[in-house]
Design a protein that fits this description.
InterPro entries: SecD, SecD/SecF_arch_bac, SecD/SecF_bac, SecD/SecF_CS, SecD_1st, SecD_SecF_C, SecD_SecF_C_bact, SecDF_P1_head
Number of helices: 33
Shape: globular
Strand content: 5-15%
Function: Part of the Sec protein translocase complex. Interacts with the SecYEG preprotein conducting channel. SecDF uses the proton motive force (PMF) to complete protein translocation after the ATP-dependent function of SecA.
Transmembrane segments: 7-27, 511-531, 538-559, 565-586, 607-628, 634-659, 694-711, 817-834, 841-863, 875-899, 929-947, 953-977
Radius of gyration: 34 Å
Number of strands: 25
Structural class: alpha+beta
Organism: Parapedobacter defluvii
CATH class of the domain at 498-671 and 685-712 and 811-980: Mainly Alpha
CATH superfamily of the domain at 498-671 and 685-712 and 811-980: Multidrug efflux transporter AcrB transmembrane domain
Membrane topology: Multi-pass membrane protein
Length: 1004
């Protein structure tokens, strides 16, 4: 094997890198186990412990140290379905935006166009602004849009003579700004949660924002915080020198309190010690800790003597003669990011609250300064407006844009106010700049976070202000968007929501882990029993494969979901595919009388095209799933793609290294037992000869299946039809029909109720208030649900999880699913055309893949309501269909590769193509059956032990693998015969003709 040394080096490097990436997960799990042991079931206590550890170093590698927060950011993150929490999709109301930009006109046609565009947007791929313009032109063809949007506030962009195209361009730009601003506001709000591994994504090309909050339990707080309008305010500020004495008093009071705590805890230090120094500080701050473990080190003594200033550094600067002095301005201190939570706890302490006057508010900056990326600024603002609040509201802003200072050519922001705001702003700025030696700053605050606090240089009479400072271009863009938030109070509403309780999450984890372990064991045992010592070598590669897969996922910060675990389980089955191809080829080479060394070399060489073709087609489907899927499906796609890469690496390189080592040691290498050596070796089934009977059987099944589809239809999941779904667990077994009847009566419409796993657990789906996504509608639906569920007397229940999908989202998901399926077939057909250079091969591969998809759809329609588990058509089902398509082509290209090899042999060029195709099928039959069996084994384990959440998903793949095996053997390759017509394998070349003529005996 060429480059053996390089490959060994690469294996070592990848192994070390994966160990490093996975080590963070082990570290954080230990901290969390310590927290659970300390809290003894008290969730608040456990959270306080973890909060206290956020800034503590928990992982010391010598050359690098990591705090718990940093280690948490590098661990394998668990998705909502494994950890519990909330997943919401928010939609920015562009209807509200357009109406506000036109100053809420009363024109009937204008408002009708807004409503029509809103209705059409639920079933259209076009943007809302484009739909609104279309509808308005239909209703008012002779009225220009400028007549509504050429307002004083929009005068910089829209003139009375602006064309409709110019106005549409303005609306598109404002819509983009509103969406971007909502994204930034939501991201800042989420950061306040302190959620580990939050995920927020702007769905490009849409007005939607996807948010995942693992571990969140206060659902009402999340909904309230995320859906609140952005609150832009201007606050007067204090000078640092005015606030420092107060902070000194706070520091002294905390020190005195901690000193008393130390005396108390020293008396019990021998009997009650905690693992964290911060535990005692939490006790002082009301976190209900039990004791304080105080070290005698000087650092801890300093922390006790100056608890506040130990983590909040006062804002200082160098004065005359380079002497330190308090820095001018409203910044009163700096804290490390990891210490901000601790500072907040100090400031919330009852003793401290008595010291801080009511007319002082301390607010953090929005993000660290680039020069000090680990520090956050603390500002002091002065409640001086109405109701002791801000001095001015953000609703007076008419526009803001990022600009450049013409004098210094540095980035700045230009801010415009309406006439009312300009008058008030003139008064405020005149007062702030009255004393030339003591100019005040005005803090720009959004949602309680300071974005900027520029010092007022003079009175601003016309409402046009320039904000300069140490800005980057990105800073000015962000600040301009923030200022626009006051002008455009566009709301973002939750249109899709999934709430997973921690109980369901833990059950999902247990089910996923059990299925993965059992599936791994099944594969390992089978390979040993079938391939002898070769099986042991393959098993080492499989173990490395799982290790590399998890390590790479950790290094990429990929989120592990339940479908992701299914992807791992599926990878276990397909990981042996390359090994099976290699081993079957080695057995063929041994059958030709070659030595074991030569057979191994030739086996790897001849199996390589089939390995690459089969894995690349599956990888392409994974890519399509990644781009078209969302939520947990992304986890499945990510796992599938990474698993294919690691499978190729381990099967091709690691097994080869082991074989080379065994040959060097003189070990005997066997790839079969006597009983398995000749399995299907000389198979000669008449697949081609009986192909028409097979075509007829498949066609008949599909025709019958379409009758079921058109008469019975499908059970659509909530993400395909919209509505709300709840998973409910009763204490005792229930009568399904009784629950359904009660809920039908309560909701006043048909409710879908299905047993979900055990006979005391149901999944309820209702379309009641499907078009309403407000909090009030959510509460109404939940109230009716509880009313119906509670009618079963003497049987308590618990709502484990919930999911809400608006009709717009449902239609979008369905469209993406259809596109994903069509695109997958096209991509695979194009790839096969490139690889095999004949359209017949592409079509022969495409027809069976469509056949497989149809068979699974038919079975889901036929068996729905008959089998004791859910067969909903949802995103998981789409992922299963695409996986089956990939697997079907995976099998097919192996036969095609062997057929191409045979067609290149001169001795087969005069054979009938049907005989050659049949031979190719039979010679690869052993590989096809063995690979399918390994995948069927692991998918059966996933189906049995994987849990109810993905039972339908695993069933679809399990059945799909069986169908795909059938179609690749009985349909794909035989179709080549019919598509190429009655002909020989290949017409003889001119050279072959001459050779044959030369061999003829000479005539006398």
């Amino acid at each position: 094997m060429q480059g053996k040394g390089l490959i060994k080096f690469l294996v070592v490097v990848v192994t070390i890198a994966c160990l490093y990436s996975l080590s963070f997960t082990f570290v954080t799990r230990k901290v969390e186990r310590d927290a659970a042991a300390y809290a003894k079931g008290d969730f608040a206590k456990e959270k306080a412990y973890l909060d206290s550890m956020a800034g503590e170093v928990v992982y010391n590698l010598g050359i690098a140290k990591y705090t718990y927060r940093e280690a948490k950011g590098n661990e394998i993150a668990l998705g909502l379905d494994l950890k519990g929490g909330m997943n919401v999709t928010m939609e920015v109301s562009l209807q509200e935006l357009v109406r506000n930009l036109a100053n809420n006109p009363k024109d009937e046609n204008f408002n009708k166009a807004l409503e029509n565009a809103n209705i059409r947007s639920k079933n259209s791929q076009s943007g809302y602004v484009s739909l609104f313009v279309e509808e308005f032109k239909k209703l008012s063809p002779n009225t220009g849009l400028a007549s509504f949007f050429a307002t004083k506030d929009n005068s910089a962009y829209v003139k009375p003579n602006s064309t409709d195209a110019q106005v549409e361009s303005f609306l598109q730009r404002e819509a983009g700004n509103a969406i971007d601003n909502s994204f930034k506001v939501l991201r800042t709000r989420i950061d306040k949660f302190g959620v580990t591994s939050p995920n927020i994504q702007l769905q490009q090309g849409t007005n939607r924002i996807l948010i995942e909050l693992p571990g969140v339990t206060d659902e009402d707080r999340v909904r309230k915080l995320l859906q609140g309008s952005a609150r832009l305010e201007f606050w007067e500020t204090y000078h640092n020198v005015e606030i420092y004495p107060m902070l000194e008093n706070v520091n002294s009071a905390l020190a005195a309190t901690l000193k008393e705590t130390e005396k108390t805890t020293q008396t019990t230090a021998d009997t009650a010690k905690t693992d964290s120094t911060d535990a005692g500080l939490l006790a002082t701050l009301g976190a209900n800790q039990d004791s304080l473990d105080v070290s005698d080190s000087s650092a801890n003594q300093l922390a006790l003597q100056n608890p506040l200033f130990n983590i909040l550094r006062p804002a200082t600067a160098l004065g005359p003669n380079n002497q330190p002095m308090l820095a001018p301005g409203p910044i009163v201190g700096y804290a490390q990011l990891r210490d901000t939570a601790k500072v907040n706890r100090y400031l919330e302490n009852p003793v401290v609250k008595q010291i801080i006057p009511a007319n002082v508010k301390l607010l953090w900056g929005v993000k660290p300064n680039p020069k000090t990326p680990e520090q956050l600024e603390l500002y002091a603002v002065k409640p001086s407006g109405v109701d002791a609040g801000p001095i001015l509201g953000g609703n007076v802003i008419t526009d803001a844009k990022d600009d450049f200072d013409p004098q210094s050519n540095s980035p700045m922001v230009t801010m415009y106010m309406n006439s009312e705001g300009a008058r008030e702003w003139r008064r405020i700025t005149a007062t702030a700049s009255a004393d030339p030696n003591n100019k005040q700053a005005i803090a720009i605050v959004l949602d309680g976070v300071v974005y900027s606090a520029p010092t007022v240089q003079g009175e601003i009479p016309n409402g046009v202000s320039q904000i300069t400072g140490n800005f980057t271009i990105e800073d000015t863009k962000d600040l301009a968007n923030v200022l626009k938030a006051g002008r455009l109070p566009t709301t973002a509403k939750i249109v899709e929501e999934a709430v997973v309780g921690p109980t369901l999450g833990q059950a999902a984890i247990d089910a996923g882990i059990n299925s993965a372990i059992i599936g791994l064991l099944i594969v390992l045992i089978f390979m040993i029993l079938y391939y002898n010592r070769g099986g042991w070598v393959a098993n080492i590669a499989v173990v490395f494969n799982v290790f590399f897969l998890m390590g790479i996922m950790a290094s990429l910060n990929a989120v592990l979901t339940l479908p992701g675990i299914a992807g791992i389980v599926l990878t276990l089955g397909t990981a042996v595919d390359a090994n099976v191809l290699i081993y079957e080829r080695i057995r063929e080479e041994l059958g030709l009388g070659k030595s074991i060394r030569q057979a191994i070399a030739d086996g790897y060489k001849h199996a390589m095209p089939s390995i690459l073709d089969s894995q690349i087609t599956t990888f392409l489907v994974g890519v399509i799933l990644f781009f078209f899927g969302s939520g947990p499906i992304l986890g499945f796609a990510t796992t599938l793609m990474i698993g294919i890469i690691t499978s190729l690496f381990t099967a091709i390189f690691i097994t080869r290294i082991i074989f080379e080592w065994m040959l060097a040691k003189g070990w005997e290498i066997k790839v079969s037992y006597p009983w398995s050596a000749n399995t299907l070796k000389n198979a000669n089934f008449g697949f081609v000869q009986n192909r028409k009977k097979i075509y007829l059987a498949s066609a008949l099944f599909i025709v019958i299946g379409f009758i079921f589809i058109f008469t019975k239809g499908f059970s659509l999941g909530v993400d395909f039809q919209g509505g709300r779904t709840y998973t409910v667990r009763y204490e005792k077994a229930i009568d399904l029909e009784e629950v359904r009847s009660n809920l039908d009566e309560t909701f006043g419409l048909t409710t879908e109720v299905k047993i979900y796993g055990a006979d005391n657990q149901v999944r309820v789906t209702t379309t009641y208030q499907i078009d309403e996504t407000s909090d009030e509608a959510d509460k109404e639906v939940l109230a009716k649900l509880n009313e119906g569920l509670s009618k079963i007397a003497g049987n308590q229940y618990e709502i484990l999880s919930s999911q809400k999908v608006g009709p717009t989202i449902a239609n979008d998901i369905k469209s993406r699913a259809v596109y994903a399926g069509i695109f997958s077939v096209i991509v695979i057909a194009v790839y096969i055309l490139i690889r095999f250079h004949k359209w017949q091969y592409s079509l022969a591969a495409a027809i069976p893949t469509i056949h497989d998809a149809l068979v699974i759809l038919i079975l889901f329609s036929m068996l729905d309501g008959i089998v004791p588990f859910s067969l909903d058509i949802d995103q998981h089902f789409v992922a299963a269909i695409l996986t089956v398509i990939a697997y079907s082509v995976n099998d097919t290209v192996v036969v095609f590769d062997r057929l191409r090899e045979y067609l290149g042999m001169s001795r087969r060029k005069q054979e009938d193509i049907g005989e050659t195709v049949n031979l190719a099928i039979n010679r690869t039959l052993s590989r096809t059956i063995v690979t399918s069996l390994t995948v069927i084994f692991v998918m059966a384990i996933l189906f049995i032990f994987g849990g109810e959440v993905i039972r339908g998903f695993s069933f679809a793949i399990l059945v799909g693998i069986i169908v795909a095996t059938y179609s690749s053997i009985c349909l794909a390759a035989p179709l080549i015969v019919d598509l190429q017509g009655k002909q020989k394998s290949e017409e003889p070349s001119v050279a072959d003709t001459k050779n044959k003529a030369a061999l003829k005996p000479a005539k006398a």
